[in-house]
Automatic annotation (TrEMBL):
Pfam families (UniProt xref): SPG48 (PF14764), TPR_AP5Z1 (PF25153), TPR_AP5Z1_C (PF25154)
AP-5 complex subunit zeta-1 N-terminal TPR domain segment(s): 1-279
Domain AP-5 complex subunit zeta-1 C-terminal TPR: 449-791
Domain AP-5 complex subunit zeta-1 ARM repeats intervals: 320-437
PANTHER family: AP-5 COMPLEX SUBUNIT ZETA-1
Organism superkingdom: Eukaryota
Protein name: Adaptor related protein complex 5 subunit zeta 1
Organism: Prolemur simus
GO-annotated cellular components: AP-5 adaptor complex
């Protein structure tokens, strides 16, 4: 979030019109033509950068101004702040035909890095990426110790690798591997000199001392990113940058080609031939540049792991230790995949590291790359990794669900490594209650991630329990909030929650009589059972207005769509029936968050119809349950969408066309239930406690009754008698709703006067429903309907009965 002042400046920058911008560009151009580029030029360039970067679309600058920006950037003696601003403005404009820069016009590595960043932003329209790579590599070939700084070029090289991995030739790859090896292993172990100058500087200034470890001890091994000091030398800065791009470079320059063994072949090698190879270091023999780089990378990572055991004196160094551990484990994973001989030199170290970190909540993010390592290599190295997974999926989400960064990384870990779980995928699917804790607490940020992850989590054995969990997700958010408050060190307590004014809610949460339901809601693994949480819904009702609970409730409809899209791929007939029963049951048992019930009912009703279409026979199979649902509806207005879908499905699928087991007795029972429901909704008067029934429910009820009567003609007289239920002039449905009900009633009564035609229209055969029947002008259904209408309008003597 920006401050009020920053927001005001951004708003002003966005509102500047083209004419104002043209005048300002003229002013900038005038300043850039002056010989002395002073503070005024810097101030104007800052303003211009704000203008071009404040909007999502590209601002068009005068060509003269753009040319002067490029010329100023390439001046040999241009002040560095001006160069940085010119480059930033030109990058914001890219890609642009007005940019005509070339790396040939640069005079030092700093200038080259700025020009290269602009050319790379152009999008490789003129092979800029390859050109930049050639110039950067020529600069990197320089080995003069007093030459220009190479620090600015490694980030450019890293960007080149990402944009165009094939831009480097074999000899260039070898060259860069050699340079990275030197920077990683042979950086100076003495601190750098402070910047000289000033009145008090003397020739007898203190000589720099050795580098130190994070705990203050003098370093006795080579320099790494975890080494500390007051000042750093050029090669030490290059050491840090080399490590930052090491993993990407190893992946880029790894073994390729048809002669390299694939992953399966390597697994066999890991488990057989290499199991008897000595795990000694290979530094004693000459190695090709790429293999030498891997060996040095392995030593570097081992050194980082050793340095991480030291107690850091500063919090910043402690955080850096954790970040370096994550990267070191990821690099070791790449090394073991590229060269299996590293595996047996790595396993004991990482086993010990996991044992040391598994009990430290502050280091939990390091456990994710460790788990990935054991997922990748555990089987080949005959390591039982189940304990690693169990700890990761059981304790971590339950205790640290409130960490947003960990939540995102954990879900990303699950998504990125689905292919590695293999036979252990059940660990992931059974742990969905714990994973949902991340989702419940961080739903806005993780909704898209879980939409992508749900297809892997959905399993036929846990689908019903998972659907219950999704519907109870806002309730879980409220329970987690209270659980966090009840912990002794509730440092993560969200102070903005209105439930702070409801301490009784927290006290009731600890009630022993409700602990069974609370433990079920907060379970860490799928239990295979479900429980009605209505008592918890009532207990947690004061939390329903909390912002976090409301945010979670907004995500549930999206997650439900993703769930049903996945479950239909694995659902059997029995599971489909179970899901339908669950929809009927839960439509009246939801946590009452504002607007949550209406949104979820819309999804449930749509999915109910989709399941019925997938398996039409379920209407007959679940006839008793559907009749109970119709008889228990006491709030048609609150469940209008669900009631409408159920009634429509009965009228559509309760037919021998879809299930030969359908009997006249069943049709009669449904007719009686729907008749009673129609009478109830049309005769009851709306009140504050009982709002009026939507007209859509009335019209669907009338249509379904007519359909059932057309299939059991003994019901036609009773259905014709329902015409008296049409709303009168004082109907509460409003003028439009009343007219729609009357029109539908008239149409249906006219159809029932010709039973055979009614059955043809309301229960068409599969042939009639085929597309050809509707395209053929001689047999199309609209033609049949027009014919029926003309017959109905004629004298009554032509009609049967």
């Amino acid at each position: 979030m920006f401050t009020a002042g920053a927001e005001s400046l951004l708003q002003q920058a966005r509102e500047i019109q083209a004419e104002e911008l043209r005048k300002f560009c003229s002013r900038v151009s005038k300043l850039l033509r002056e010989e002395d580029l002073g503070p005024d030029a810097i101030d104007c360039l800052r303003r211009l950068f704000l203008i071009v970067s404040a909007t999502k679309y590209n601002r068009r600058l005068d060509k003269t101004c753009v040319d002067l920006l490029q010329a100023t950037l390439c001046l040999p003696a241009c002040p560095e702040p001006l160069q940085v601003l010119c480059a930033a403005i030109l990058r914001e404009m890219s890609p642009s035909d007005s940019v005509t820069l070339s790396c040939d016009h640069t005079h030092n590595t700093r200038q080259l890095s700025l020009v290269a960043s602009i050319l790379l932003a152009q999008g490789d329209r003129r092979e800029e990426v390859r050109t930049v790579a050639q110039h950067v590599l020529r600069a990197l070939e320089s080995r003069q110790p007093e030459g220009p700084s190479l620090r600015h070029l490694l980030p450019v090289m890293s960007k080149v690798m990402g944009l165009s991995p094939g831009a480097l030739q074999e000899d260039q790859t070898t060259l860069l591997s050699k340079r990275l090896t030197d920077w990683l292993r042979y950086a100076s172990v003495q601190q750098g000199l402070p910047h000289s100058g000033g009145f008090f500087s003397t020739s007898r200034a203190r000589q720099p001392g050795p580098i130190t470890e994070v705990d203050g001890a003098v370093a006795t091994d080579f320099f790494t990113v975890l080494s500390t000091g007051h000042h750093f030398t050029e090669d030490q800065w290059l050491n840090v940058q080399a490590f930052s791009m090491l993993r990407a470079w190893l992946l880029h320059s790894g073994p390729e080609g048809p002669g390299a063994p694939d992953a399966d072949d390597k697994s066999e090698l890991e488990g057989s031939t290499l199991s008897v190879i000595s795990a000694t270091s290979t530094t004693g023999r000459l190695l090709p540049p790429r293999e030498r780089l891997r060996e040095v990378a392995f030593e570097y990572c081992q050194r980082l792991i050793e340095q991480s055991t030291r107690r850091a004196l500063r919090k910043g160094d402690s955080d850096l230790q954790k970040a370096c551990l994550v990267e070191a484990v990821l690099v070791l994973d790449v090394l073991c995949r590229q060269d299996p001989s590293f595996l047996y030199r790595t396993l004991s170290c990482l086993k010990a590291l996991h044992g040391r970190l598994s009990g430290d909540p502050a280091c939990v993010r390091v456990l994710l790359p460790l788990a990935r390592f054991f997922l990748t290599h555990g089987e080949a190295a005959a390591v039982d990794s189940e304990a690693v997974y169990q700890h990761l999926f059981t304790r971590v989400p339950a205790e640290l669900f409130h960490s947003p960064m960990l939540a995102f990384e954990f879900v990303q870990f699950c998504r990125d490594n689905l292919h590695l779980f293999g036979g252990n995928l059940s660990i992931l699917t059974l742990s969905f209650p714990n994973l949902f804790k991340f989702l419940a607490w961080n739903s806005p940020a993780l909704t898209a991630e879980f939409v992508a992850l749900l297809p892997a989590l959905v399993d036929a054995s846990t689908a019903v329990e998972m659907l219950h969990a999704l519907l109870d997700l806002p309730c879980l958010t409220a329970a987690l909030d209270l659980q966090l408050r009840s912990w002794p060190a509730a440092s993560e307590r969200p102070l903005w929650d209105t439930s702070l004014r409801n301490p009784s809610c927290l006290e009731a949460f600890r009630d022993p009589q409700l602990q069974g339901l609370v433990q079920h809601l907060l379970r860490s693994k799928a239990s295979g059972t479900t429980q009605r949480l209505a008592p918890l819904h009532q207990l947690l009702q004061p939390m329903a207005s909390c912002a976090r609970v409301a945010q979670c409730a907004e995500a549930v409809p999206t997650l439900l769509h993703a769930f049903f899209s996945a479950v239909t791929q694995v659902a059997s007939g029995a599971l489909t029936n179970q899901l339908v029963l669950l929809l009927l049951e839960r439509s009246d048992s939801l946590y009452r968050v504002p607007q949550f019930e209406a949104r979820v009912h819309r999804v449930l009703s749509a999915q109910f119809l989709a399941l019925c279409k997938l398996k039409p026979s379920l209407v007959v199979e679940l006839a008793r349950d559907l009749l109970e649902f119709l008889g228990s509806v006491n709030d048609v207005h609150g469940r209008a969408s669900m009631v409408t879908s159920v009634v429509w499905a009965i009228g559509e699928y309760l037919s021998v066309t879809y299930d030969r087991r359908c009997t006249v007795e069943q049709i009669n029972k449904f007719f009686e239930a729907l008749e009673a429901l129609l009478f109830e909704v049309t005769q009851s008067r709306p009140s504050a406690a009982l709002p009026q029934c939507p007209p859509q429910v009335v019209t669907v009820l009338m249509t379904t009754l007519t359909k059932l009567a057309s299939r059991s003609q003994d019901l036609i007289p009773r259905c014709l008698g329902l015409g008296g239920l049409s709303p009168g002039a004082s109907s509460p449905h409003g003028e439009e709703g009343t007219e729609a009900i009357r029109t539908r009633a008239t149409e249906l009564l006219n159809l029932l006067k010709m039973p055979s035609v009614a059955q043809f229209v309301l229960t068409p055969s599969p042939e009639v429903c085929s597309p050809r029947y509707h395209r053929d002008v001689n047999t199309a259904l609209p033609l049949a309907l027009r014919t029926v209408s003309r017959l109905v309008e004629k004298e009554a003597g032509l009609l049967p009965g």
